[in-house]
Design goal:
mainly alpha; 2 domains; 258 residues
Length: 258
């Protein structure tokens, strides 16, 4: 996060530095480069394009953050909702086979392992553990294994399958609106849509970020042009001239683009 913040500030500072450079060159009466890309008009256009590219990237990143945060809030509440669904299914008198399928989907959504010791199966009564002390080997094997977190797409898919499962169970007839099939079906569709929205926002951010980096750092970029301007001013006005002394103090940096 700190590296991203530093890169963002580098982008802003480079655009600001280029604007200072343009301002100085505009005030130099003898500034008359032969290369078209170093003229005042060309530098002005490049500054406008760079500012737009940075603004577009910032808007795209803000939109991605907003959509990602909205999705995170909804998905964080998913394990509790899925658990309520399975408990309601268990109380409806569904078959053990159906409950086992539902418990499996619940574990996929919550990230709990069946053998991890994190929770007893939904709808069952836990039995007391033996009073004998476990062996060291048993203690090691009893430590819950780490479960890789499921992706948002996987969670949405498992939840949709859970909804299909309870939809096919005739005895699943809860009174709570949030647990009824109609509401759950809408929720499943909302989860899928949220994932699609985030993917689109991520794609847009990647596109705008690449365009920004090209405008600022690659090819005929703001960074390359600024260095060419400084070289021209040195050649045209002299190393010890006030014009070059001022313009040489303007610093540009190139952050990592990875």
């Amino acid at each position: 996060m700190h590296n991203k913040a530093r890169k963002c500030m580098s982008n802003v500072k480079n655009v600001e530095a280029f604007e200072k450079l343009l301002g100085l060159c505009s005030g130099y009466g003898g500034y008359n480069p032969g290369k078209p890309n170093l003229t005042i008009q060309s530098l002005t256009n490049k500054l406008i394009n760079a500012k737009q590219a940075v603004d577009d990237a910032n808007v795209a990143k803000s939109n991605l953050d907003k959509e990602s945060n909205s999705r995170e809030i909804v998905f964080d509440a998913l394990p509790r909702l899925a658990s309520s669904i399975v408990y309601t299914l268990a109380s409806s008198g569904a078959s053990e086979q159906t409950l086992n399928d539902a418990r499996f989907l619940l574990r996929q959504i919550t990230g709990r392992r069946k053998d991890g010791g994190k929770a007893a199966p939904v709808g069952t009564v836990p039995t007391a553990a033996p009073a004998t002390a476990p062996s060291p080997q048993a203690e090691v094997s009893a430590v819950p294994k780490a479960t890789p977190p499921a992706s948002y797409a996987s969670k949405a898919n498992h939840f949709a399958n859970l909804v299909k499962l309870v939809s096919a169970e005739a005895n699943y007839q809860p009174n709570e609106p949030e647990l009824q099939v109609a509401g759950l079906t809408s929720m499943a569709a909302e989860l899928q849509q949220m994932n699609s929205t985030v993917i689109q926002a991520q794609s847009n951010w990647n596109s705008k970020r690449i365009a920004r980096d090209k405008a600022l750092y690659t090819g005929d970029s703001l960074l390359k042009t600024s260095r060419s301007v400084q070289k021209y001013v040195r050649a045209a006005f002299g190393l010890r001239s006030q014009e070059y002394q001022k313009i040489s103090k303007i610093v540009f940096t190139k952050p990592s683009l990875t």
